[in-house]
Amino acid sequence: MAQTAPAKKMLMMNILDILKRYTDAEHTLSQKQIIDYLWSDYNMAADRKTVARNLSNLMEAYESVQYKGEVARTYINKQGKKETSYILSDFYLERDFTDAELRLLIDSLLFSKHIPYRQCQELVEKLEGLSNKYFSAHVKHVRTMTGITTPNNQLFWTIEVLDEAIEKGLQVAFNYNTYKTDKKMHPSVNPDGSVREFVVNPYQMAATNGRYYLVCNYDEKPNLANCRLDRITDIRLLDTPAKPKEQVQGGKQFSLPQHMAEHLYMFSGESVPVTFRMKKGIVKDVIDWFGMDVAFSDETEDEVTARVTVNWHAMRHWALQYCRHVTVLSPPDLAEHVQQDLVEALERYKNCED
User: Fold this and answer.
1) Which of 136, 139, 143 is closest to 24 using CA atoms?
2) Residues 231-258, mean pLDDT to the nearest whole number
3) Strand partners, 204
4) How does pLDDT run across 46-74, given as a tens digit for each residue?
5) Which neighbouring-strand residues pair with 225?
6) Which pLDDT score, from 0 to 100, does residue 179 have?
7) Cα–Cα distance measured from residue 51 to residue 12, given in angstroms and rounded to the nearest whole number
8) Integer Cα distance of 122 and 109 in angstroms
9) Are the beta carbons of 261 and 291 closer than 8 angstroms?
10) Which architecture, in CATH terms, is 271-353?
11) Interatomic CA distance for residues 37 and 39, integer angstroms
């Protein structure tokens, strides 16, 4: 019995779904294998000519449907002569993303700390769906840990509102949270104990160190600031125009790559020239942190002097992280604070011994 129009359409869609789930450039299917999958997966019977016609239509409609080879078939025609025809074979769906590209995207999600665990898993599953069963088998054992991701399920809504605010040049208001010993987020409060609402002028969103940040200006402050997006809750888009970035301290010359390089750990505040003496063994680390703008001088066999422009508070934190390899030389007040930090740290360890 001839197939009805809806059944014909379903046949083509089912063949396309089979190619999507079972094939790529390294895994192809013959027409016979496609017929077998139609029966096993959809309980749909189809002969070779019907499948061949639908595959031909799919190749005309979708450039991504490809084939690799042809199979020769020899038969005796009505005149009793031997003839050879060729059947297309080795069909596959050409992917928008290679497996390596998908794995890179998935790894970026898994190693991020700003995306809530449940939403991260949903995104990973959607990315896996862009490939086939062979790819899913390779990544099913890789998962992120719930303990290192944010519990803030408002993150995507926050990003959506901020994107609209930046596009339209409008201010936003939100609560900004921090963790306490109960391991829960708590909003910042005013002196009277009421929840404090921050009004900011948003300029740019950026990801660094596994976190997502908003580069903005607090309405009552003169300079740029950085806010963790996963700490923002109850965001509202306001009708008031955002302060132009050019009116903010450091805004006229704002460059996101430069801003990220100068604001390690995304501390707020202005950047200053810093000089430090270091062991040459950490040159690669210094370039990873500060980029190619770092200037080296006074090189010896074991040490070298480096000069960078960086946020004062971020450099104080970084110098402590690399204290076994680095000595801050200038500015003097930074060198003094780092030295005092080390003295206080040593005292704390002495107290532990007591």
Assistant:
1) 136
2) 86
3) 215
4) 988 899 889 888 888 888 888 887 766 66
5) 216
6) 80
7) 8
8) 11
9) yes
10) 2-Layer Sandwich (3.30)
11) 5
User: How big is the CA angle at 189 (ends 183 and 193), to the nearest 5 degrees?
Assistant: 110
Lowest mean pLDDT among 29-43, 62-76, 88-102, 195-209: 62-76
Between the alpha carbon of residue 250 and those of residues 201, 257, 309, 310, 338, the distances in Å are 14, 14, 14, 13, 26
* CA dist., res. 221 & res. 16, Å (int): 57
Query: How far is the CA of 263 from the CAs of 125, 215, 267, 271, in angstroms?
Result: 34, 11, 6, 8
Which neighbouring-strand residues pair with 279? 303
Is residue 301 within 8 A of residue 294, CB to CB? The reply is no
Structure tokens at 287: 């370039």
Helix (H, G, I), strand (E, B) or coil at 80: coil
pLDDT at 11 over 80: yes
Residues 229 and 236 sit within 8 Å (Cβ to Cβ):
no
Residue 41, SS3 per DSSP: helix
How far is Cα 126 from Cα 109, in angstroms, rounded to an integer?
12
The pLDDT tens digits for 112-125 are: 666 777 777 788 77
Q: Measuring CA to CA, which residue among 103, 92, 91 is closest to residue 128?
A: 103
What backbone torsions phi and psi does residue 33 show, to the nearest 5 degrees? -65, -35
DSSP 83-110: EEEEEEEEEEE--SS-HHHHHHHHHHHH
- Give the total residue count for the chain: 354
Query: How many angstroms separate the CA atoms of 319 and 328, rounded?
Result: 7
Q: Torsion-angle region of residue 234: left (phi > 0), alpha (psi -120 to 50) or beta? A: left
Beta bridge partners of 184: none
Q: Structure pTM?
A: 0.54
Q: Per-residue confidence at 260, pLDDT binned at 50, 70, 90? A: low
Query: Domain 5-93: which CATH class?
Result: mainly alpha
pLDDT of amino acid 308: 93
Which amino acid type is present at position 340?
A: Q
